[in-house]
Amino acid sequence: MSASGHEAGLFRRLAETGRRPVRLWVDGQPIEALEGDTLMVALLTQGLVLRHSEFGDGARAGFCMMGACQDCWVWTEQGGRLRACSTTVIESLRIVTREVPWPALP
Amino acid sequence: MASPAVIVIGAGPAGIRAAARLVEAGLRPVLIDENERSGGQIYRRQPAGFTRPASALYGSEAAKAVALHAAADALAPRLDYRPGTLVWGIADGAVLTQRGDRLERLPYAALILCSGATDRIMPLPGWTLPGVYSLGAAQIALKAQACAIGSRVVFMGTGPLLYLVAWQYVKAGATVAAVLDTSPSRRRVLAAAALAARPAVLAQGLRYLAGLRRAGIPVLTGVTPLRIEGHGRVAGVVVSDRAGRERRVEADAVGLGYGLRSETQLADLAKARFGFDAVARQWLPETDADGRSSVPLVYLAGDGAVVRGADAAELAGRLAACAALRDLGHAVPEEEFSRLRAALRPMSRFRQGLENGFPWPGHLAAMLPNETIICRCEAITAGAIRRTVAETGAPEMNRAKSLGRVGMGRCQGRICGLAAAEVIAAARGVPVEEVGQLRGAAPIKPLPLTAELGPDEG
Amino acid sequence: MKADVIIVGGGLMGSATAFFLRRRGLSVILLERDLVGQAATVASFGNIRRQGRFLPQLPLANLSRDLWGRVPELIGEDVEFLASGHLRVCFRDAEIGRMEQYARDCAPYGLKLELISRNALRDRFPYLSPEAVMASYSPLDGHANPRLAAPAFARAARREGAVVVEHAEVVGIARGAEDFVVETRAGTFRAPMVQVSAGAWGQRLSAALGEDVPLTPAGPQMGVTEPAPYRIPEVMGIHTDVTEEGVYLRQVQRGNIVFGGGRRDAASLDTKRATLNPLNTMAQMPHLRRLLPAMAQLRVIRTWSGVEGYLRDDIPVMGPSGVTPGLFYAFGFCGHGFQLGPGVGATMAELIATGRTSVPIEPFHIGRFAAASSTPPGPQRG
């Protein structure tokens, strides 16, 4: 996947595209980000969604990018939570934007 | 345990200059910052491995940014510097911090809050769609990540940041579809005298505007935002122009913001007294000219106290440190106080000019369709707020929150609070200052349940 | 202004009493110092729990539980009552005996508890701590929304014809020749009967009326997490003698988990504020994780407190005055009043209207402090 301006994503890279690639997994699919990317940029240069509103009003992709609005918390496959705008990507991170890893009813 | 240190919260322009002044006096203050790297939002640094020069990142402010970063780096070894650390509560003369899963309780001899500001937001239908970001976010994407928030971006709102970010996008090679300003241009003419208090800043603003026009970017003033359209992502922005005609601009992203609002939750937790600021149209902690709050040994500086911009923040940070030092019994020459106070005076005048030239469009709240989401955390609509007010008689913010959930979510009303107050005020037919402000509560940002006090604490 | 009854204090107790008095045809003025339901009620956990209560309180709690189930038809509003079950969980073998004893003791009162141990517990409630040794399950208990309850009852009372006056702080109550004269910041009101249901402020009024009680104001330490999918129907609490361990939690249908328990903090009758000490929140977190391990994935997004009144013996003051005819009390519910609210309202209305109650409330009579005899055992928590 191209690091510069992939049209499927929300964000468009304008510069600094010579960084080392980092691989992570989103909803089970591999994506390639760049070292130094925030998780938000990694996900939104190639996708449109970070999370879904708990109250049924649709997809969310963050808003303030400075840790104020709290609208970009994503789940890891292991059930951890990361604030996408203030987390730097690391190799092999596994993120879910759909199924929330939370106890099932018996 | 060592005697408590002076604690400075926030490593932006105000916090760095405050910490520097404390170090000059021979202290070793604690400097706590939520970001991993100092500089604050305005002088936010790009991550290691990025190569753009300061001139590309900060434009005309590059020299100031470089100087502030150099000052912060030189200072770091002489501080107890704690980056990447959230202050989530203040209680009994101590701040409560969190980094990862580690909690700490740090008592303070004096506390200087330099918590900065975030965008002032007036919601509109569609503003929760992927692709809509605050102006600050649009700028951070560019500055810290070399990204544009979209391939065809509309900037909408008002204030100097609207033009600055649009211009930065153009310069960086992004496509800007339009700049849509709610303030009519005649407001700037009326405010010109006050804006002339800082001629260089005024001239800069005019240069951005000229640059945008030269680049052929449509700039509309005096618009009324109607909605952001799209399914699952932004497809366009619809406004009513000065003449009342509906105008639609194709876009896949929107940068939205109406000036800045001070981040005041920590001041609230420190029990500082607040008053309604008629210029900012916001409840702000009361301070004296030097930044003393109503609580002894708690000080405020920078945009978190009152939005006057980065230059003023540097001065106010130093001044608040001087005040703290004097109150703690250190000698501070009177001359330093008077010099800093004098330097801040035109900044205050300029601030009034900006608020007059680019006013907060609180009146738009009354016109928002009922289905407009106001509180994006809890998905509470304008209609739901109006219903709460009508059916329960909720007279003020905290009651409306208690009965209708507005401002109750993860961000604690940080994003929606001002707009929600306007919706409530309009529904009641009273001035916005009569509906009060949301009370702050710890944790001011989400606190992981896994976090624990360190072994030497408690 | 004059009515049959003046109620001083518009929390859940006062609001519910006003509603049930109107149902009995008496005219009512409800006087609230600030806004209805703003002090103790709003800060309540929202527990509709009977198990663990002081046994003589169970008839009242049972009555109240029946009323909670009928709230929408009674008052025409939903206050989010869910009979989703209540679990008290213990982590020490030593506590099993006490749990078994309570289950035996409460049965004659009509409260049927199911004791579930270790493996069965994990099969039934897989999200519970694997360390739990036993739980006592009360299937018909549950939870409701404490932010909505008192205002909803007050609105219903108003619809039934009660006069509800907010911002009417009482500055004096005197017994005249025929009526009580209640002076407030919103005017003077008269009635032959008065009920004091002023929560933590009840003691100031009762003392002024010649019946002092040993009441201490305090604030519960409450918090809530961000939302997660709704998967935990039961309210649950830790059954323990160690104050810090005694946390409790419930997931609301929107997904947030509300919690409280452990230490309380100071509350001021003068500022009308109770302290939420963030150190208490920190102290709650390990016990919450222990009770519901999945909760460790979540974040606390908000905390709060409110002014509650605690009597020395940890049970409320409820019933007629011991000295003044026409005067009634229902205050100081010691942090466990929310469940009782509708039952207190119905019972006090019955008492005021008929002079009798269908459920026994003698143990709560204010005269127990005048007698200064031995204090009865208080309720258990969790």
TrEMBL record, chain C:
Superkingdom, taxonomy of origin: Bacteria
Gene3D superfamilies registered for this protein in UniProt: D-Amino Acid Oxidase, subunit A, domain 2, FAD/NAD(P)-binding domain
Cellular compartments per GO CC: cytoplasm
Pfam family, one: DAO
Keyword Oxidoreductase listed: yes
Domain annotation FAD dependent oxidoreductase: ranges: 4-351
Keywords: Oxidoreductase
Recorded GO MF terms: oxidoreductase activity
Name of the protein described by the UniProt record: FAD-binding oxidoreductase
Source organism: Falsiroseomonas algicola
